[in-house]
Amino acid sequence: MRALGVDDAARALSQGAEARVFALEFCGRDAICKQRFAKKYRLPALDERLTRARLVGEARAIVRARKLGVRAPMVLHVDANEACVYMERVAGVALKEALRRETCTREDIARYGREIGEAISKLHDGGLVHGDLTTSNFMVRDDDGAVVVIDFGLSYPSAVPEDKGVDLYVLERAINAAHPSQTELFDEIIATYKKTSKMWCATLNRFAEVRARGRKRSMVG
Amino acid sequence: MDARAIASLACVELAAYKAALACERGAMVTRAVHSELVFCLSPTRHISEAFRRFGGDENTRALIVCKFDANDEDLERVRSVVKGELVAFDARPAVDEAALKKWYKVHENELEIGSLADAVLSRIAIRDVA
Q1: pLDDT tens per residue, range A16-74
Q2: A11-88: what fold?
Q3: Residue in chain B nearest A54 by alpha carbon
Q4: Among B101, B4, B107, B28, which residue's Cα sits nearest to residue B15?
Q5: Count of other CB atoms within 10 angstroms of residue B73
Q6: What range(s) does the Protein kinase domain occupy (chain A) (predicted)?
């Protein structure tokens, strides 16, 4: 048996700025492997530490999200040596694709909105901020149509309304930019968030503030 | 291993994978690859606790035996050493769900989105980074 980082049968699925994603079979099930690669421009010692910290952070965040009852892919294995996280492969399409299908009805949008609103409120109430909420980071599962949250690479634990407000703001921007004719999705998300989150008031107040000023806080003065 | 403490076959496979990997890299915590497997099943890094909970002893009523690179001879020896009847994995006695929930700290929230076996698998997966 080889210490597989990524074995030969692995198929590359996508590549981002931080990591490559491969499809493979792991312990008899369909899985993906997300491998972070070294950044040549960083000091090697620092690079190693950052990569490892992010790897570990991501794996923890996913399991924490699952503990909070949020649908997220199961972590199967974390290989610190190879900087890989192995995860269950969610069979389905990105929400982005699902929304662009012609068969996507208003009822579908409303249901996605409710599920996403509930998922985000569970994460936020549990003190976890996703950090990269976009319609590409939700998947619609094939077998039951449920919305699954993916990519916790930028996720971090936080209980501060500011961070949660920014989280929602990022999602609003993403939806407005990618699906300008379907912004009712975000309205539904906020409506559900308000109903399900116990701390909706502080978060939504802050959200309004963030919306007025943009994602970054002005540090002038 | 005590079959009542094993949530699913996937858990054993994952623990075996981790044990084999640790063995190959010379990063084993216990002395042998087979004991490493039992250790890998545990959600904690407490070796004797892992053996107490997951290992089989003379009082174990249902036993799962794992052997790396097993040949017919090995299997024959296992059959002669274990006093009992060989059954299919799925025909094993019910797992001790209450104990598993306690050991792996699984709460109701998580069971709404997946099975207990899935939750246990996640815990085994992230033990070393949690």
Answers
A1: 788 888 888 888 888 999 988 888 888 888 988 888 899 999 999 999 999 999 999 99
A2: Phosphorylase Kinase; domain 1 (3.30.200)
A3: B129
A4: B28
A5: 8
A6: 7-221
The ipTM estimated for the assembled molecules is 0.85
CATH placement of domain A92-213: 1.10.510.10
Which residues have CB under 8 Å from A87's CB, separation 6+? Answer: A31, A32, A33, A34, A62, A73, A74, A75, A76
Can you give the CATH number for the domain in which B14 is found? 3.30.2380.10
pLDDT in tens, A170-217: 999 999 999 989 889 999 999 999 999 898 899 999 999 998 888 877
Instruction: Let me know if residue B129 belongs to a domain.
Output: no
| Distance in Å, alpha carbon of B59 to nearest chain A alpha carbon | 31
Instruction: Say whether A79 is catalytic.
Output: no
Domain count along chain B = 1
Which one of the listed residues A47, A79, A132, A187 is annotated catalytic?
Answer: A132
Of B17, B25, B128, the CB nearest to A27: B17
